[in-house]
Task: inverse folding
C-alpha cells in the first residue's frame, strides 16, 4: 500500500464514520429539527402543551373570518386529517389566503391556538396566472365529472 | 491520441504549465459569463411570466436559486480539490481549493441575503431558524473557517492540510442543506427543480434560472482562475520560471 493509498483510505473511512455520526445525531435531534407541528401532531400530543410552538398547515377554505376591530382574524389550520382553530391579532403577510400554507407561532388555550405571529408558507410551484386558472378549471371539471359519475351509479 | 495519454493530463498539475494555460482560458470564461448573464437577466425580467401567487417578487429567485446551487456546488468542488491535495500532495490542487473558497462564500452570502429579501414580502419575515436556512448559514461559517484557517498558518503546505481537513469534514453539511426540506418541516418550500422530476415551474422561468446558473458558473471559473494564478506566483516565487517571468515584466 502506497502512502497516498493510505491517505485516500483514511479520508474515505473518516468520511464514512462522520456520515454515520451525523445520521445518528440528526436522528436523535429529529424532534428539535422540526420547524412546526401539524394539526395531527398536536392532536396526538406531540406538540408542547405549556409553552409556545409553531403550528403549520393549510388555511381551510371558507374558514377565515374577521372580527369587528378589523385586526383580529380567526381561521382553521388543517392538514387534511385534523383541523385547529387559530386566533390572531395583527398584520398578515401578503401571501396569506385561504387554501395557502401558513405557519403560526403561539400557544394552545382551551383548544384554540392563540397565535402571536403568522407566517405564510408558499409551495414550490411557479406559473403564470393563466395557467393557474386553467388548472383550476380543469380540476373543477374533473370534480364535476366524477361527481356526475357518482350520481349515475 | 494526446487526449488519452496520462502525460497530457499530468502536465496540468504542474503550476508552471497551468499558469499560462489558465491565462488563456480566463477571457473565454469571462466572455461566456457576460453573455449568459445578459441573456439570463433578459429572460428573468422580460420573458418569464408573472407568478400567479407572488406577482413580481418571485423574480429574485433567478439570483437566489443559482446562488444557492453554486454555494453548494463550489463547496463540493473545493472538497474534491482539497481531497486530491491531501491524497496526492499536489500543490496546484490545494491552490485551486483556496482559490474557490472566496467565491463560494460570496454565493452563500448572496443566497442568504436574497433569501431574506424574498422572505419578507412572501413569508412575512426576513429570517427564521428552520433547517434549510440554518444549515445554509452554517455553510457560510464553514467557508469563513476555511479561509481563516488558511490565512492563520504561514506554511502553505500545512495550511492546505489543516484547512483541507476542515473542508472535508464540513462536506457532511451539503446533503443536510439539500435534503433539509424533505427530511423536516421547514418554512422554506421544497425543491422546484430536481434531477428525477420535471420542474414545477413555467418553462421560460426554468430557462431563465438555468441560464443564470450557467452565468454564475462561468463567472466562478473565471475568477477562480484569476485567483489561482495569483496563488501560483505567490507560492512559486522562488522558482526559476517565476523569476524569469518577473524579469521579463520589468
Result:
Amino acid at each position: 500500500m502506497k502512502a497516498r493509498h493510505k491517505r485516500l483510505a483514511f479520508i474515505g473511512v473518516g468520511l464514512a464514520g462522520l456520515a454515520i455520526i451525523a445520521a445518528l445525531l440528526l436522528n436523535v435531534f429529529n424532534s428539535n429539527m422540526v420547524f412546526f407541528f401539524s394539526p395531527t401532531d398536536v392532536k396526538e400530543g406531540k406538540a408542547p402543551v405549556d409553552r409556545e410552538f409553531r403550528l403549520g398547515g393549510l388555511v381551510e377554505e371558507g374558514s377565515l373570518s374577521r372580527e369587528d376591530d378589523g385586526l383580529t382574524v380567526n381561521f382553521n389550520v388543517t392538514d387534511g386529517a385534523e383541523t385547529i382553530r387559530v386566533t390572531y391579532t395583527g398584520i398578515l403577510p401578503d401571501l396569506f389566503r385561504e387554501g395557502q400554507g401558513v405557519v403560526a407561532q403561539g400557544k394552545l388555550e382551551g383548544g384554540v391556538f392563540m397565535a402571536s405571529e403568522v407566517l405564510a408558507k408558499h409551495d414550490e410551484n411557479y406559473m403564470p396566472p393563466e395557467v393557474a386558472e386553467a388548472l383550476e378549471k380543469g380540476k373543477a371539471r374533473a370534480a364535476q365529472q366524477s361527481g356526475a359519475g357518482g350520481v349515475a351509479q | 491520441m494526446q487526449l488519452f495519454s496520462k502525460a497530457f493530463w499530468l502536465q496540468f498539475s504542474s503550476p508552471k504549465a497551468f499558469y499560462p494555460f489558465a491565462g488563456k482560458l480566463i477571457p473565454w470564461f469571462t466572455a461566456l459569463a457576460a453573455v449568459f448573464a445578459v441573456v439570463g437577466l433578459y429572460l428573468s425580467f422580460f420573458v418569464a411570466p408573472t407568478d400567479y401567487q407572488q406577482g413580481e417578487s418571485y423574480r429574485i429567485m433567478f439570483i437566489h436559486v443559482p446562488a444557492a446551487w453554486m454555494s453548494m456546488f463550489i463547496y463540493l468542488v473545493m472538497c474534491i480539490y482539497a481531497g486530491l491535495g491531501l491524497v496526492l500532495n499536489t500543490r496546484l490542487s490545494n491552490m485551486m481549493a483556496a482559490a474557490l473558497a472566496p467565491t463560494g462564500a460570496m454565493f452563500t452570502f448572496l443566497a442568504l441575503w436574497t433569501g431574506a429579501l424574498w422572505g419578507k414580502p412572501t413569508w412575512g419575515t426576513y429570517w427564521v431558524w428552520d433547517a434549510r436556512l440554518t444549515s445554509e448559514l452554517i455553510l457560510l461559517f464553514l467557508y469563513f473557517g476555511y479561509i481563516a484557517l488558511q490565512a492563520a498558518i504561514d506554511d502553505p503546505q500545512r495550511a492546505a492540510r489543516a484547512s483541507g481537513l476542515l473542508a472535508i469534514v464540513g462536506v457532511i453539511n451539503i446533503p443536510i442543506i439539500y435534503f433539509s426540506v424533505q427530511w423536516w418541516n421547514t418554512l422554506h418550500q421544497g425543491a422546484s427543480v430536481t434531477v428525477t422530476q420535471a420542474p414545477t415551474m413555467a418553462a421560460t422561468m426554468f430557462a431563465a434560472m438555468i441560464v443564470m446558473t450557467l452565468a454564475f458558473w462561468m463567472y466562478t471559473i473565471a475568477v477562480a482562475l484569476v485567483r489561482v494564478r495569483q496563488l501560483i506566483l505567490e507560492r512559486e516565487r522562488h522558482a526559476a520560471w517565476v523569476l524569469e517571468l518577473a524579469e521579463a515584466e520589468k
